[in-house]
Structure formats: C-alpha cells, structure tokens
Amino acid sequence: MDLDTSGIIGQSTSLRDVFRILAKVAPTDSTVLVTGESGTGKELLVRALHSNSQRRSMPFVPINCGAIPKELLESELFGHEKGAFTHAIRSRPGRFELADGGTIFLDEIGEMDLTLQVKILRVLQEKEIERVGGAGVKKVDVRIVAATNRDLEREVAAGRFREDLYYRLNVIPLHLPALRERGGDILVLAEHFMRRFCERKGRRCLTLAPDTRKVLAAYSWPGNVRELENFMERLSILADDDVVPPADLPRKILDEVGDIVSLPEPTPPDPLPVAAGAASGGVPAGFSWPTITDLRDKGMNLKDFLDTVEERLLDEALTMAEGVKNQAAEILGIKRTTLIEKLKKKRSDS
Ligand SMILES: Nc1ncnc2c1ncn2[C@@H]1O[C@H](COP(=O)(O)OP(=O)(O)OP(=O)(O)O)[C@@H](O)[C@H]1O
Ligand SMILES: [Mg+2]
C-alpha cells in the first residue's frame, strides 16, 4: 500500500525519515507515541497514521487530555453509569467505547495525572475498560496513539509520569523534528501557506522578496509550523504589494535574525528521491501504477484519483515557480488559462 501523506507538506530528509517509519507502522496495531515541540504537526501525523491503517473506515477519536478538567477526564475516557456522580443523570459511553474498532488519540498525554495513568495502562494490557460507577468490565478493540510535547523521560525521572506506562506507550516512537531542523522545508511551507491564503481570499499570489526569504529561513520558529501558518495568513492580509519586503516582517522576527546582509542564502529544498529507473524514463520512487484494488482500498473512484494526482502536480509546479502562474503553466506544459481554470475549480471544491 502506498503511503498517503496528503496534507503534510515537506520534503526534508528529516520529515521523510518520519514518513518511512509511518509507512511501516501504520498498517500494524502497535501503540505509537508521537513527540515533538508544539506546532510541529503531531495531530496531522496521527490522523495520517489512522487513515493509512486497516482501521481507516472505523472511528478516529481524539481527546485532548490537557484541555479537560481532571475530574471529568476519567468519565470522558471510560464513560459512566447513571448515578455514578451528581450530574450523571444518564449512562454514557466514553471515548474508548466510541473508538471501538478504530483509533483513540490521547493528545497531550503528558498532562494526565498519575491515577488516570494507571487506568490507561490497564486498557493497554487487558484491552478492557470499566465505566465510572460501572459494575463490570467491557472488552474494547482500540488502537492507542498518544502525543506529547513534554520530554516524557524527564517526566518519569521527576515522578510525574509512570515509567511502566511510558514503556507501554513508547513501543514505536515517532519524533517530529522542529521546523528549524527541516532546512528548505521552511520556505516550501511558507510558499504553500501563502498560496493557500491568497487563493482563499481571491487575491493575487504574493511572492517573498529574496531578503524576506533569507529572514524567514534564518528565524528559529519556536511555534513551528503553526506559527509559520498563522504568520503567512497575517502577511496575506496585511501586505500592500505583490512582493513582500523584509520591512513587512514583525520586529520580533527581524530582531532575532539580526543584520540581513550577513544572513546566509536559504538552504534549497532537499531534492525529491528519484528511483534508479527514472533517469532512463522509468517511474519515480514512491510511485507505483494504481490498480483497481488500490483505489478500492482507499475508497476512491477514478475521478477522485485523477483529481488527487492533478492537485499534487499543480502544487508542485507552483512551488517550483514560486507562485508565478505563467511559469507553473510552462512547467506543466499547459496553457496559463487552463492552469487558472484548474486552480479556480480547486478553490470552489475545497
Ligand atoms: N508539514 C505540515 N504541512 C502542512 N501543515 C502543517 C504541517 N505541520 C503542521 N501543519 C499545520 O500546523 C498546525 C499545527 O499542527 P498540529 O496541530 O498537528 O501540531 P501539534 O504538534 O499537534 O501542536 P500542539 O503540540 O500545539 O498540539 C495545523 O494547522 C497543521 O495543519
Ligand atoms: Mg496537537
């Protein structure tokens, strides 16, 4: 089965390493622990994990363990019986039961308190749950995927996270590198977001001046992809001209990078892997001719498939052309008007 990483943009070696593990682990039922700084795309990755798994047609149930008050979290996860506590006027299934057959995503697991950690451990070991105030246990068939931006080993050392649970969760660790460690992906993502926001707002695609590109590539992006995404949205609204000069960037970013003249040229994006046969007109790596079984597996019909292929190539051409439509059309060997029509159609579909 080919890996579907749609929506996760980037071609850096460090991200491709993540995709490689993802491709191996997705079809299994193993527990996965995703780590990475805030905004690195952990949730996006977990969703890709589920949609590439055998469980893809079954529920995907996320729960943010850090956002729910701890008194409520247990009944959210495991459900409760009528009368279990003051406001339990009727019985309710928890997220584990709702996820039966599918995947539960325990987001921000590092925030969960120790008493609840024991109960999660039990689900992992016994594959059964007990509702709050319930009289017995129920079997559930759920794949558990957890994520955290905390250093769980440190949490274990500090006595805030159970060591046994840590090992149980960390069967397959998937670490998302910080954006600043992804080299050329910073600008690939910046241009992708810029194009998306401009298309959404129906304004001409903005381009980044060479010095602006240098600054964005040199900045440390502590909020990672989320920060870059929000920042591009802001630029797409506030920029006055079609070419964004460094002066349009906020003080915070300019102050951090210092003197623009002494900044290095941005790292170019890592080249996409090409199979041995490709040079002689073969098929690129990661590409295999789809069969009807593949389409059925993905729940796609012919049109869905062709649309996906077209969208990916349009995106790639626009990135190569830095958003210049004439050039992108030329790369694709189609007329500029045809390209614009396709983009318009794409926008109205999304
Ligand atoms: N590689 C990527 N390509 C495209 N969009 C991305 C990528 N990585 C992250 N994003 C976008 O960035 C935002 C943050 O991603 P996400 O919520 O998955 O991060 P997170 O690691 O779960 O963050 P947090 O720890 O704060 O919960 C989302 O809008 C997501 O769509
Ligand atoms: Mg998240």
From TrEMBL:
<dbReference type="InterPro" id="IPR025662">
    <property type="entry name" value="Sigma_54_int_dom_ATP-bd_1"/>
</dbReference>
<keyword id="KW-0805">Transcription regulation</keyword>
<dbReference type="InterPro" id="IPR025943">
    <property type="entry name" value="Sigma_54_int_dom_ATP-bd_2"/>
</dbReference>
<dbReference type="InterPro" id="IPR027417">
    <property type="entry name" value="P-loop_NTPase"/>
</dbReference>
<dbReference type="Pfam" id="PF02954">
    <property type="entry name" value="HTH_8"/>
</dbReference>
<keyword id="KW-0067">ATP-binding</keyword>
<protein>
    <submittedName>
        <fullName>Sigma-54 dependent transcriptional regulator</fullName>
    </submittedName>
</protein>
<keyword id="KW-0547">Nucleotide-binding</keyword>
<dbReference type="InterPro" id="IPR002078">
    <property type="entry name" value="Sigma_54_int"/>
</dbReference>
<dbReference type="InterPro" id="IPR058031">
    <property type="entry name" value="AAA_lid_NorR"/>
</dbReference>
<dbReference type="Pfam" id="PF00158">
    <property type="entry name" value="Sigma54_activat"/>
</dbReference>
<keyword id="KW-0804">Transcription</keyword>
<dbReference type="Pfam" id="PF25601">
    <property type="entry name" value="AAA_lid_14"/>
</dbReference>
<dbReference type="InterPro" id="IPR025944">
    <property type="entry name" value="Sigma_54_int_dom_CS"/>
</dbReference>
<dbReference type="InterPro" id="IPR009057">
    <property type="entry name" value="Homeodomain-like_sf"/>
</dbReference>
<dbReference type="InterPro" id="IPR003593">
    <property type="entry name" value="AAA+_ATPase"/>
</dbReference>
<keyword id="KW-0238">DNA-binding</keyword>
<feature type="domain" description="Sigma-54 factor interaction">
    <location>
        <begin position="8"/>
        <end position="237"/>
    </location>
</feature>
<dbReference type="InterPro" id="IPR002197">
    <property type="entry name" value="HTH_Fis"/>
</dbReference>
